[in-house]
């Protein structure tokens, strides 16, 4: 089917853009809309991404904000064949993989730091748990804030924030989608948008319903599954000044997860000889990981006056997870527990943690508006946010089941006995924020942010042991200055803090068992230049992030032999660059990052200067789109992704090679029988490149994940 969609000449035209130097991401969304106009293929304007909701500074365009945010809408995601959060690594050079296992929840790095799945995810600006499959079918766009987010979030990794913006009623439209992905994955989705009252009236009512189902049959063996989503969003204009937004979502994904490959003794296996379709989770007793979630939110917006707005926003997320895996881990035969055996065997464990329950609740009240003090114009935002997170688990199985082989040929008996305890978690926080954008004159502005947090955390094992409870208070300031030295170009400098917490485990070997460490405050300095005109946008950013490191010091092998304390910093300094442009029928975009990530200030001298494992210190993303004049409505697209070498082990003794992949796609749009018909087709990893895509050192073990093999995809969308 997909092989017959293009002629060899068409593929040649699609390959040509790879030899250009720059190109677009945000513009892809506009290209889709413009392709529906068969009378013209000339587009003179760039697509401007909407203001980032998570930034918290009102309706300020991203090009005039002293923050680095990637914003991508779902139209562009579909053009690029992206269906899961983990695949957004294709979009931006600063976003990478971090134990991003297929079939599991997404794990990402930004600027070399890992996003914390418990604290770094937002939905319409309110906290949610990322320890689940976050489906995108009812999302309008995805925003990723890069770097320190102390002004936007209380507790978070210095990687930044990921925010999912939910689709809301916009008008009168229906969209139907049928999709196919090699081997035999099939998807059907519908998006219905309706205005139920008179548009613009004081009592207007809008409803948007999204439904999707996908049969998952990827090229990965033993990884068949399914996922589905049903969601509805309601918007009611109660009066001239009052708007009520409500939405609810149910989602479910059931699919076996895929464990990583590993070192074979002291040998780094060749990716060229590894079959990327192999899944070592292939025992007769292997079961899927099941993620099920219900999320709902209610938001009331009151326009108090021309200049001031009051918002009350509440949300609740309920997650149910059955986490199960035939888990390859270590080699007891060679007394190596961080890699597989040199002969290709490994210890295989039966892991089961069923009935996991996670609940996140949040309520935010905010007041936003403008006022003038003398000659200064202020745009102020202040408010309170309360949130509560609970996680409840049963006992778990983590039992040695036998010895497996890296070719997946050995079957071992199940060992499902619940022999291990789990850990319940509770967290409550109350946060207050104040943000002020001060216009000093037409060119200069000051940006001030402060967030104060009162945190209460506790945990306990499922048998009642190792209980820990602590409270901490902290404040995270942020400030920036911007200089609009031309109507199209802005320079900025910023400094800010983010915060995390840590505690010594309540175990006998710790001298400070159960005691919290001082708040771990990260610092970031960032300077940049942004340019945005009708046909060209570009930006260059320098950043320097220092994150405190908590470590166990001492023998740590007998009682009272170990102390957990601060031990230096992880310092990430880097340069980010991006550019996008449109002229005529061409759309071009590129992004690049150079990163120097090092360990500094450790009491263990051998650690200083080491590069973190699984972090590429250079990366590049290039994309191009071209609308063919010879066939109006047809747009050809090409992508190139490159990442530099990554270290496999924390001691930097082994390194995998860099890799480059190419993807091609086409989109054809036409209007017929009263509808817009949009056909998309593409192939990822065109040249079937074999390489180790990422090298996470996770759970005290080295893992290797390969690039996905060449994969074809196609979809048909009908807009009524």
Characteristic terms for this protein:
720 residues; single chain; mainly beta; five-stranded mixed beta sheet
Structural summary, described in words:
The protein is mainly beta and 720 residues long. It has 3 helices and 37 strands. It has helices spanning 8-15, 26-35, 74-79; strands at residues 69-73, 95-97, 108-110, 113-114, 121-123, 126-128, 139-146, 160-166, 173-181, 185-195, 205-216, 225-237, 242-255, 289-303, 308-328, 345-373, 376-392, 397-405, 423-439, 444-461, 468-486, 489-500, 520-532, 536-554, 562-583, 586-600, 618-627, 634-643, 646-647, 655-656, 659-672, 675-684, 692-694, 697-698, 701-702, 705-706, 711-719. The longest helix has 10 residues, at 26-35. The protein starts with 7 loop residues before the first helix and ends with a strand. Mean pLDDT is 91; it is low at 1-45.
In short:
This protein is mostly beta strands. The chain has 3 helices and 37 strands. The chain is globular, with a radius of gyration of 26 Å.
